[in-house]
Design brief:
The structure is a single chain. This protein is α/β, with parallel strands linked by helices and 606 residues long. Helix 15 (408-418) runs parallel beside helix 17 (454-466) and helix 17 (454-466) packs parallel to helix 18. The chain has 21 helices and 23 strands. The protein has two domains: 7-264, P-loop containing nucleotide triphosphate hydrolases (Rossmann fold, 3-Layer(aba) Sandwich), CATH 3.40.50; 301-390 and 472-477 and 503-600, Rossmann fold, CATH 3.40.50. The chain is globular.
């Protein structure tokens, strides 16, 4: 690394004007990042880490903030050092995207919904690199291949809503790295990604850093990612820097109590070794829990057999169906009452589609779904509406699933107005009780979604899912975007409710450490099929399928001395899930390797 820093932040202060007076987003923050160095900024929601990154890009003023003090010094490739605080917007436009790239946290809001992926990817290349249309398109295809998006040529013609959350995030990463910037700011870039894609993206960023001397400011709440990526670490709390040091120093001898609490809240793969049942996590500032393990029952509650969901691909002037996306193919599993079955796998493997198909939020093409003796797929509209009392869903993005124009109390009460299970004069009391149950103050009943943090909004989503006292909850990446301490609280809440109410969870996640903590049974999905299924202890401690082994190998460890390098990653390219009309894949054939532990043996596997 060179001695001269690429970027230096000096005594930065950012302020937001609100009806209640000015709010300080960042106060007196100073740090620098050198060429070829990765600086990780860690902290929870509201700590000021994203505000700091937006200030560096001079985008914070478009979000209602003002830089009130400090300097943002950036060493340009040609033209020497500039203070970004005093740069006009014309100069910033030449720097953004070209010399400073940024990966935004929320890809659905960062990508323009009315432009194709190809147009958005090539825009920066044509502006900053002066590439022609064909050259920019060829480079865009290369970028999508680098971030492991299958069928990159076809993706260029698609719109953001046609891609999964993980794929949208990979498009954002490709856009940020398109012009090989001198400084890359990555704001939670791998939050929505599964472990295999995350491992490859981290390795890609690390390789580019070494090849080009690019500096990286990496913002995250995942301490395992910090251990994998960081050279130095800045810890932020309430808009201030509370600790800074080399990554080995921060992990070995953290000085600040907040840093110690962050490290203590990280669920670690292997913590549940030898324990067949889920147990509550130890929360920051608390001693070990003494709760009983959650055993559940042996009574089958949800039985899925041969579930198949495909999406038509329409082409030509008359929009004829010429192929199908085989999103879920011949999926079978059983979930017992009071237990948790985790569906894990890469982005685009079909796990979310499987969860939605079980609830008939998407209509499957074939299969059988039996919920407590009721055949869900054979129900008519009215009968299905009544059956939904028993089954609810917690969506991945709580902000997207909540109505911004209605109060939180009204939204939690809405299911009770749709299904008159309670007298109207008792609804308000039950909603208030639900807020107590998810540990939210009753004063929040009259607040709106934007007034809460991400973790608090997820608690509201859980309260709404519990309103009708369901027996099955499908949790789709319910804690993936939460800070580690908030994640621990929400997971403990879900497990406490399971023990108390006998809930059954279909837990969809890409976080293997969280899955190990909460699940009784695990089903590993790859390309629409379950490739391995069994008790959690058997799958995690004795994985048999090559894909399961690759997933577990890719999980980052919260220990800087155990970093993985790119050559350790051995992932095969993902085949296309699109097949022509008339194609019928072979059925799934499994081998039982131990009681309840089965592995896919047919050729359609990994």
């Amino acid at each position: 690394m060179l001695d001269s820093p690429i970027a230096r932040v000096e005594k930065l202060g950012v302020q937001f004007a609100t009806r209640g007076g000015p709010v300080h987003g960042v106060e007196d923050v100073t740090f620098e990042v050198n060429p070829g160095e990765t600086l990780c900024i860690v902290g929870e929601s509201g700590s000021g880490k994203s505000v700091t990154s937006l200030a560096l890009m001079r985008l914070v003023e478009f979000a209602g903030g003002d830089i009130t003090q400090g300097r943002l010094l950036f060493e340009r490739e040609a033209g020497g050092q500039v203070d970004l605080v005093r740069s006009d917007q014309a100069q910033m436009r030449s720097i953004r995207g070209g010399e400073i790239g940024m990966i935004f946290q929320e890809p659905m809001t960062a990508l323009n919904p009315v432009f194709t992926i190809g147009r958005q990817l090539t825009e920066g290349l044509r502006l900053h690199e002066r590439l022609g249309r064909h050259a920019a398109r060829a480079r865009a295809v290369e970028l999508l291949q680098e971030v492991r998006i299958p069928e990159p040529e076809r993706r260029l013609g698609q719109y953001p809503h046609e891609l999964s959350g993980g794929m949208r995030q990979r498009v954002m990463i490709a856009m940020a790295m398109a012009c090989r910037p001198r400084l890359l700011i990555a704001d939670e870039p791998t939050t929505a990604l599964d472990v295999t894609i995350q491992a490859e993206i981290l390795a890609l960023i690390d390789r580019l850093k070494q090849e080009t001397g690019m500096a990286v400011i990496f913002i995250t709440h995942d301490m395992a990612v910090v251990a994998q990526m960081a050279d130095r670490v800045v810890v932020m709390l309430n808009g201030r820097k509370v600790e800074e040091g080399e990554v080995t120093q921060i992990f070995a001898t953290p000085q600040h109590d907040y840093t110690k609490a962050l490290l203590a809240a990280v669920p670690k793969l292997g913590d549940m070794r030898g324990k067949p049942y889920p147990e509550l996590m130890r929360l920051p500032g608390q001693g070990p829990t003494h709760s009983e393990p959650i055993r559940g029952s042996d009574r089958p509650f949800l039985t899925v057999h041969g579930l198949t969901t495909r999406f038509p691909v329409k082409t030509g002037l008359f929009r004829r169906t010429t192929a199908y996306v085989h999103a879920v193919e011949d999926v079978s599993f059983t979930l017992n009452a009071g237990r948790t079955l985790a569906l894990v796998g890469e982005s685009g493997c079909g796990k979310s589609t499987a969860g939605r198909s079980v609830l008939r939020l998407m209509e499957p093409m074939a299969g059988k779904v039996e919920l407590d003796g009721t055949d869900i797929l054979s129900l008519g509209d009215e009968a299905l509406r009544r059956a939904r009392i028993e089954m609810q869903m917690i969506f991945q993005d709580p902000f997207g699933s909540l109505n911004p124009q209605r109060t939180l109390g009204a939204q939690v009460a809405e299911p009770l107005h749709n299904y008159p299970l309670l007298p109207k004069d008792e609804i308000a009391d039950w909603v208030a009780t639900l807020f107590d149950r998810v540990e939210l103050p009753r004063s929040y009943l009259n607040r709106y979604p934007h007034e809460l943090s991400g973790g608090q909004r997820q608690r509201v989503a859980i309260a709404r899912a519990l309103a009708l006292k369901p027996k099955l909850i499908v949790a789709d990446e319910a804690v993936s975007a939460l800070d580690v301490s908030v994640q621990a609280q929400v997971l403990n809440l879900m497990m406490e409710l399971q023990a108390e109410l006998g809930l059954s969870y279909l837990f969809i996640s890409h976080d293997m450490a969280v899955v190990e903590r909460v699940s009784h049974d695990v089903a590993v999905m790859y390309l629409g099929r379950i490739v391995e299924r069994g008790p959690r202890m058997a799958v995690f401690e004795d994985p048999r399928h090559p894909y399961t082994k690759a997933l577990l190998q890719a999980v980052p460890v919260a220990d800087p001395s155990r970093r993985r390098v790119e050559r350790d990653l051995n992932f095969r390219p993902i085949p296309s899930p699109i097949h022509p009309v008339g194609y019928e894949p072979e059925p799934s054939v499994y081998e039982e390797v131990s009681p309840g532990h089965v592995v896919l043996t047919s050729e359609c596997g990994y």
